[in-house]
Amino acid sequence: MTRGPTWDIRPPKNQRPETQDQSLALIARVTGLQILYGGGVIRGLTNWGPFRLPRPTTKHQTKYATGYHFIMRFDSSSAVQKSVRRTLGLDPRMIRFSVVKLGEKLEDIKDVGGTVEWNQSRQLIGDELGVKVPLSSVRRLE
To answer: What are the recorded Gene Ontology BP terms (predicted)?
Structure first.
């Protein structure tokens, strides 16, 4: 029985990410490479940026009230999905994640986008000040 590649999701010590955007990009890159090396296809990646969580949550003995959200649309085998779920679950930077099946065939999901149609503005961490940020100003990962 052959084993797949082993993933180390931490960057070298001299290149640790300094910002949450860099951490998010690294998580997306490692996840994307896992999917691609497993024979999958990435259909899209959308960075929603920071949002308040529905309720404060605890992960890895730390409490969180906000988190960065991103959507990665991909096709892959169940073994690759299991590997992605395991990697994301063990990553201390991930608070919560979901893998959702959107359809059986490409025709079923070809029109699924990653935009936030239900919300045209959002509040950031400093929302006590009433600062509104339009979605068009959110920087996308590329």
So the answer is: translation
> Collapsing DSSP states into helix, strand and coil, what is residue 58?
strand
Phi, psi of 72 (to 5 degrees): -120, 115
Nearest in space to 44 (alpha carbons), one of 70, 26, 5, 10: 70
Q: Is pTM, for the whole model, over 0.70?
A: no
CA distance 18 to 48: 19
Domains of the chain in sequence order: 17-118 (3.30.70.60)
Whole-number Å distance between alpha carbons of 31 and 33 = 5
Question: Which residues share a beta bridge with 38?
Answer: none
Confidence of residue 83 (pLDDT cuts 50, 70, 90): very high
Both tokens of residue 79? 């073994």
Cα–Cα distances (Å) from 62 to 21, 22, 38, 69, 124, in that order, read 20, 20, 32, 18, 20
Task: Measure the CA–CA gap between 28 and 24, rounded to whole angstroms.
Answer: 6
